[in-house]
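User: My collaborator sent over this chain with a note saying "see what the structure looks like." That's all I know about it. Can you take a look?
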Amino acid sequence: MDMNDILNRWADIQSQKNLKQKESGKNKVSSKKANAPTPEEKALAAEKDFEAKINAENSKQINPIELWLRRYGTVDKDKVSEDQERRTTQMDRNYLINMRPEARLDLHGLHQDEAEIALNNFIEKCSKSGIRKVIVVHGKGIHTTGTDPVLGKLVRRFIENDKRCGMSGHPKSKQDGGSGATWIILKN
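Assistant: Without extra context I'll predict from the sequence alone. Here is the result:
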């Protein structure tokens, strides 16, 4: 046997193998698609889908505490107490402004020095008595020779400088004196 015979025989064997493989390939038809997942991959994908569904449902549900907070809200106690205090103060202020004066001082006919002494004594006496609102009638200054009423300025300056005096203003009605009188709320 020479080398040529060996090569020919080897070629025959190879061709027979190829022929058998081709024949066996023709008879075997795979029902599986080229990139189809295996049963293990299918089970894993189904498990992931199930977990995704559960997570989606859980995200739709609201935490009971969060639900309660949404429904009833939270209360800022500091803000509530500040608001209550502000309302109470405002109500007290409105009450004091609208209440009738508890004492009255008429400065008509007095000179500036006499009026200042009388006003100081009156405020001192009312403050010690616990009176909250007083009215001082000083007049409009119609009979004054100058342009401005003297006693009105004196009363205004006294209120600004005296620590016992709080808010002040003129009565709304002319019966109480109008712009010729000043009401004063005394501090405690």
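A starting point for your reply to your collaborator: The beta strands are 103-106, 133-137, 165-169, 181-186.
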